[in-house]
Structure formats: C-alpha cells, structure tokens
Specification:
Helix content is 25%, strand content 36%. It is α+β, with helices and mostly antiparallel strands.
C-alpha cells in the first residue's frame, strides 16, 4: 500500500485522536504529511486565494512525488531545532462547506487536473472540525500548478519548484502502467450441500503504459470450518505461469510475451468458496497484485462466523421457502465477501 494512503486511512479510521496526538507530540511535517491552517478558518463562503494556492501547490508537489496527506486546521510552525511541527488545533468552521470548496477547486489547480484527490472530515463538534485531503501519486504527472505555472515536488517537509533537468529525468521516461484488482461476482449457488460463492480476481491496467510481468498472489488465511473449503481455479494456458504452495497460496505471474494494454483486463483466477456449518473460524483471504513499473496493491477478504451463519441461513431459507428477491443472490455474495 502507498505510504500516503496508509496514513490517510489511519486518520480516517481513528479520527480526532490521531490529529490530537500529532499536536500533543509536536509531529514534524514530513515527506507524506503537511499541515495547513486555513487563512479564514473556513468562515467564508468561498475559498481564499491563499488556501487555493496551498491546495494547488500540494496537488502538484504530492502528485508529482509519492503522494501525501494535507491536514487542514492545524497550526504548524518551527520549533527550536528549526523543524516545522504541529503546535495547535485551529479548527475549520463549517467543515462540510470547506470540503465542498476544496472539491470545487481541485480541477482548476493544476494542468492536467489530478483526478485522485479526496477529502474527508474529522468532526470536533457539530460546527467545527478538521479536513483531511489525500493526494495520491499521480499517473498523469507531471502536474503544473496554476496560476504560477511551476512544477513542484515534495522534498523533505517542503514543496520545491522542480528544475527542468530534474523534471525531464523524472517524467521523460516511457509511460508507466497502473495495475490494480477488481472482483467479478457470480450469483450465490447451492453446490455439494454447501453455499457456493465464486468470484473472479480481475487485474485492470488503468495507466498509460503497457503492463508486463503482471503478478497475483492469493493466500488462504482461515477456512471457516471442517465442512468448508476454498478452491482456486486457474487456467495457466499461454498467459500465466505459477504454482500452488502448501495448498494455501496461489502465486501467478504472466509469461514473458504477455502484455496488458491501457484500459484492458486480465483474469488471474476464479476463487470458489464452499460454506457449510459449523463455522468455527472467520473467513480470511489475503493477496497482492501488481506489474513491472506499477505499485503493488494488497487486498483482504474477511468476515466473521456470525455473518457467515446469517448469510448461509438466509440463502437456505430462500431456497426452501420464499425464493430469491431481485438481486438477492448477488447481495448474499457481497455480504459474505464483505464488499
């Protein structure tokens, strides 16, 4: 997982306690983290020029580098050692409006626009809060800031203009792929006295470059019970090479002459889950996907014994009594896989 995304999700999950911990411990601004105080604390109905410029510089700098998180509503200044550290909360008034203003400004901050920017609110009370902006590494870099027409990168705790020779070295290379996973779901079914859940693990290339050496690893972390099982269906053929390790981990990589063009999909495996009580342990599958020149993405499919019992019972009641409602067989699959 990208460092910036990991930080963003940690703040999203733990909320205000993370921000307060930053202030209490005088958190230093770093490569993936920047603190900003709104020029008007979010009190105006439009985004101030200073806030817009700070947003634009961050989008260019983080987007052209490895991504980062911008925390609005924290006062940051230099300590005795000269490091920029979080000193105090300066809360955003009406954070919902502030998020709306940020989102409205994103498309006009850089050329080309960065489409991956996202915001969320850490509530302090009913009227005030902190706004957190995630700016991932961009597949459309380099991004030029508007209106000063400069390109920035993140260096240490600062955004610095990028000299032409550095810019040419960073982005004069061939376009890179961006490979990540999606799921292709089938309807729930009854098979061999078990609730049968099947889904395809699909790899998609969203980047501008052609992908090669595409890989997929899937591991069975926990089978719910002695009557349940998990099976990986893979047709190696002319596309994949790989092996099964100890009957719990499937490791795949594409053959040397296989290439995935931008916008194309490739199926790695179909995962079959057969669920039959008793459910004594949770369902757990983990894995990762990627390609040469693309970042690696990890995934987890996990659910509790309680949910497995609920969905197994629900399916059997539909089979024996009422039949299935519109889309219910797909909904059962989504509930079991916790999607």
């Amino acid at each position: 997982m990208e460092r910036s995304l990991d930080l963003f999700q940690r703040i999203e999950e733990d909320g205000l306690s993370v921000i307060e911990n930053f202030v209490e411990n005088r958190k230093i601004e770093e490569l993936f983290l920047d603190f900003k105080r709104s020029s008007n604390n979010g009190s105006d109905s439009k985004l101030s020029n200073r806030d817009r410029n700070n947003l634009a510089k961050a989008i260019s700098g983080f987007g052209n580098s490895e991504g980062g998180v911008l925390v609005w509503g924290v006062d940051c200044s230099k300590d005795a050692d000269g490091a920029d550290v979080a000193k105090a909360l300066v809360l955003i008034e009406n954070p919902q409006r502030f998020v709306s203003l940020l989102q409205g400004a994103v498309s006009g901050c850089t050329v080309p626009p960065h489409t991956g920017v996202e915001n969320f609110i850490v509530k302090f009370n009913d009227t005030h809060g902190i706004v957190v902006t995630h700016i991932p590494k961009s597949n459309s870099a380099p991004h030029q800031m508007i209106p000063d027409r400069k390109y920035y990168i993140r260096a240490g705790s600062d955004f610095v203009p990028t000299p032409h020779d550095v810019l040419a070295g960073m982005f004069g290379r061939r376009p890179q792929p961006h490979v990540f996973h999606t799921y292709q779901l089938s309807k729930a079914a009854y098979n061999q006295e078990s609730l049968h859940i099947a889904f395809g693990l699909i790899l998609h290339n969203e980047g501008p470059g052609i992908a090669s050496d595409i890989f997929s690893i899937v591991k069975t972390g926990s089978i719910p019970g002695s009557n349940s099982r998990i099976y990986y269906q893979t047709n190696f053929g002319d596309t994949w090479t790989g092996f099964m390790e100890n009957e719990i981990q499937l490791s795949l990589i594409t053959k040397p002459d296989v290439r995935l063009p931008p916008g194309a999909n490739l199926q790695a495996t179909v995962i079959h889950i057969y669920l039959q009580p008793p459910f004594e342990k949770k369902l757990l599958l983990t894995g990762s996907v990627g390609a040469r020149g693309s970042i690696k993405y990890d995934f987890v499919i996990e659910n509790s014994t309680t949910v497995l019992y609920e969905q197994h019972t629900r399916y059997m009641e539909c089979v024996l009594n009422s039949g299935f409602g519109d889309g219910e067989e797909h909904d059962i699959v989504e509930k079991v896989l916790n999607l």
